[in-house]
């Protein structure tokens, strides 16, 4: 078995004070992907940066206090990379990947966007470049006999059952028809699999993000925007997936919850 978790920490320095350190100490995950770290490596609290038994790849954003992703693995990676070959986005702290034996794992923080603004234009440019990278990554992996897992905050709810209030969000970033169509292309044309949805095809959610405003968490008025998206061979080996939703609002250390999946890889690793 290999267990992989992904979570948007909503600022690693704040999360470390609220419970992230304790969660990392107790997790059974072999690989943890983090997003929205919002810190350079030297700014990361020592209790997170110097975790015993973990190897870390940190990818901060060139703009201080923005974005930032990381991949933590208990096994020493064979290869690490930051960015995906994009002149515009490789310094934005939105993508990092590692190679383990037979498996590439990546951490993604896709731009959130905002309708009618440059932020949405940026999101669309990122999506256009990124889907090309994902296609090439899967094809190279297949040729090499490897599997691929891209984890992270994709900032898109793909289906109506991926957010509680879908009717009122059809004109908002994160649930726009063109964004959802892009996700459909990722699955139907490029050939990836939404692992949680494959294991739980008829379940509403499970949601992974709840606004801090109002009583969204208490009412479970959330969005499923954090995904683990895998090559088909790896997805077929998934045996269990769950969202580690906090027991109550006071126990939350991020506005997102970890998505954790166990894969039965046999001799792959």
TrEMBL record:
UniProt GO molecular function: double-stranded DNA 3'-5' DNA exonuclease activity
EC number: 3.1.11.2
CDD domains assigned: Nape_like_AP-endo
Record keyword Metal-binding present: yes
Residue span, Endonuclease/exonuclease/phosphatase domain: 6-256
InterPro entries tied to this protein: AP_endonuc_1 (IPR004808), Endo/exonu/phosph_ase_sf (IPR036691), Endo/exonuclease/phosphatase (IPR005135), ExoIII-like (IPR037493)
Keywords: Hydrolase, Magnesium, Metal-binding
Gene3D superfamilies: Endonuclease/exonuclease/phosphatase
Cofactor(s) annotated in UniProt: Mg(2+)
NCBIfam families given in the database record: exoDNase_III (TIGR00195), xth (TIGR00633)
Protein name according to UniProt: Exodeoxyribonuclease III
Native organism: Kitasatospora paranensis
Lineage: Bacteria, Bacillati, Actinomycetota, Actinomycetes, Kitasatosporales
